[in-house]
Amino acid sequence: MRLFAVPPENRCEAQAVTQNQSLSRASLKTPKAAAIAGMLFSVLTVAAFWLLWISVPADPQEPGSWLSANSSTVALGLNLVPFAGIAFLWFIGVLRDRLGPLEDRFFATVFFGSGLLFLGMLFTAAAIAGAILIAFAAPPDELIKSATFLFARAVVFSIVNIYVVKMAGVFMITTSTVAIYTGFAPRWLAILGYLLSLLLLFGSYY
Q1: Pairwise CA distance, residues 97 & 178, whole Å
Q2: I need a surface site. Which of 79, 99, 159, 167 has the fewest CB within 10 A?
Q3: What is the distance between the alpha carbons of residues 37 and 44, in angstroms, rounded to a whole number?
Q4: How far apart are CA 148 and CA 185, in angstroms?
Q5: What pTM does this model have?
Q6: Under DSSP, is residue 181 helix (H, G, I), strand (E, B) or coil?
Q7: Nearest-angstrom CA–CA distance, 206 and 204
Q8: CB count, 10 Å around CB of 46?
């Protein structure tokens, strides 16, 4: 049996590795990881939407002059969307891991489903808008005068201003509810989330 005994120095190394793994696992489960991911998502999303807001007119029937004047700004905003999505997925994953056995199946389903729908539709709208920029770079005059441009512009407008916003509101409601019942966030933050989610659901059309 002594032939298979682990030397003391190897035992110390194994214990050190186990402790390091435990510390790394604990650091991932801390609220800081979710908070950093959430703040990063917020900053990137606000920056992307602000760039699009100052560059693209609100009217979906606008003739398309923004394509020649603000295409670089729009492209920058669209390129921020994937990084915001990565931060958002990290936020959802860390938050669900933080909740662990406290997670309710009903709210977990709505929370996770609304988050994925929000992100999927946001990526879809960004992809269509990016396709408009690529198509404009080939034959600019033909694209602006075509029905395809008007259709694509209206699709992006509808997805972002109706469906993405509403799913964001549902996600905020479920997150605030989970925060109140589990106490993983301050109560005032959950109440603020309720108020902002109602604004998105019923008071926001742009």
Answers
A1: 13
A2: 79
A3: 11
A4: 46
A5: 0.75
A6: helix
A7: 6
A8: 12
